[in-house]
Write a structure and sequence with these properties.
By secondary structure, the chain is mostly helical. It contains 6 helices and no strands.
Length: 174
């Protein structure tokens, strides 16, 4: 579940919030890929630290571990929320790095395809046109199949036979 920016600001210190602010929508596009990679390692360290503190606090409340120190009061809820903020920021940074990587790969793929097309076009040999020829061109080949032609008289004979048969049937009934 995403957290509102106001809640992020209330959970984090000023320096931490400046790091997180750069991972949000319009600002993340202005950050260089090398800075994004550095930011990713910083966010991982922050997330891991909060995860460790939250686990330790949960162990203390169950009675399984000793207290870490005098400067970590409260419940495990606060480190859990801070860890969520860092994890969400890390997810955004990873997504942006993946998007930049895919964009660079797509650009390289297009460049390679254009180069291959140029090389292929250069390998074609232009042949001169045949021009006008002296003969009449191709000669059609005669079909070897037997032609089955039904003459018009034969067609008419069948139709007439049908008419005669119907007339005979009609005369019988009258």
């Amino acid at each position: 579940m995403s957290l509102p920016c106001k809640l992020e600001r209330s959970l984090l210190s000023h320096d931490e919030y400046e790091t997180i602010r750069l991972t949000h929508h319009p600002a993340i596009y202005d950050v260089e890929p090398t800075d994004l990679a550095d930011m990713r390692s910083r966010l991982r360290k922050m997330r891991d630290k909060e995860r460790t503190l939250g686990r330790q606090k949960r162990r203390e409340t169950r009675g399984k571990g000793q207290a870490r120190g005098a400067n970590f009061p409260g419940t495990a809820e606060r480190p859990s929320q801070r860890k969520q903020v860092f994890a969400a920021a890390l997810k955004r940074v990873n997504g942006e790095l993946r998007r930049l990587h895919n964009l660079a790969a797509r650009i390289a793929n297009v460049e390679a395809a254009r180069k291959a097309l140029a090389l292929r076009a250069a390998s074609f040999i232009p042949y001169p046109s045949a021009g006008s020829t002296a003969n009449e061109g191709m000669v059609p080949r005669l079909s070897t199949r037997r032609r089955k032609i039904v003459t018009g008289a034969r067609i008419g004979r069948v139709s007439q036979a049908t008419k005669v048969a119907q007339a005979i049937r009609d005369a019988r009934g009258a």
